[in-house]
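hiii so um. not sure if this is the right channel but i have a protein structure encoded as tokens and i wanna go backwards to a sequence. like what aa goes where. can anyone help
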């Protein structure tokens, strides 16, 4: 029997085809379409937007803008791709001193189940974390956007984000 005969050549060809099919099958799910996850039905965005921490503003607050951003999928490229969870950002001005605004949100955050995680340059808590009942991790941050001495010019941003489904 000749090991380099037609049968042996056919087996090698079939092995190569099977190897190529296996390699293509492994690459296709990663390179096509959008991975499962995100925020089906906007449930997590709705949950975050309805969090009691966002339900009130400090004394003297005005010029309020609320931005709700749904989960987004970033295609992999030079950086890692994947889902970013939904977020809620409330920007406002307030005539109250910064310490009053930061303490107001520290109290609201604690009452809504947020844990303090860091203090900022003012020496006051400005970041919190929370885990929602479905296990979704969330973060919250408060920032003074302007350092103006004029009370009416002080702008703030309260930003919350929640992890996408599957993370």
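sure thing!! here u go:
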């Amino acid at each position: 029997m000749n090991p380099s005969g037609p049968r042996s050549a056919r087996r090698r060809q079939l092995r190569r085809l099977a190897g190529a099919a296996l390699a293509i099958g492994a690459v296709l799910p990663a390179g096509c379409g959008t991975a499962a996850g995100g925020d089906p039905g906007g449930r997590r965005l709705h949950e975050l937007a309805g969090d009691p921490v966002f339900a009130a503003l400090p004394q003297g607050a005005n010029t309020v803008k609320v931005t709700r951003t749904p989960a987004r999928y970033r295609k992999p490229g030079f950086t890692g791709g994947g889902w970013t969870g939904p977020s809620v950002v409330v920007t406002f001005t307030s005539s109250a001193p910064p310490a009053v605004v930061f303490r107001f949100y520290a109290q609201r955050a604690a009452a809504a189940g947020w844990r303090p995680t860091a203090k900022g340059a003012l020496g006051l808590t400005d970041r919190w974390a929370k885990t929602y009942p479905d296990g979704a991790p969330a973060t919250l941050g408060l920032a003074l956007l302007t350092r103006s001495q004029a009370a009416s010019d002080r702008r703030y941003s309260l930003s919350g984000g929640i992890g996408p489904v599957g993370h």
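oh and The chain has three helices and eight strands.
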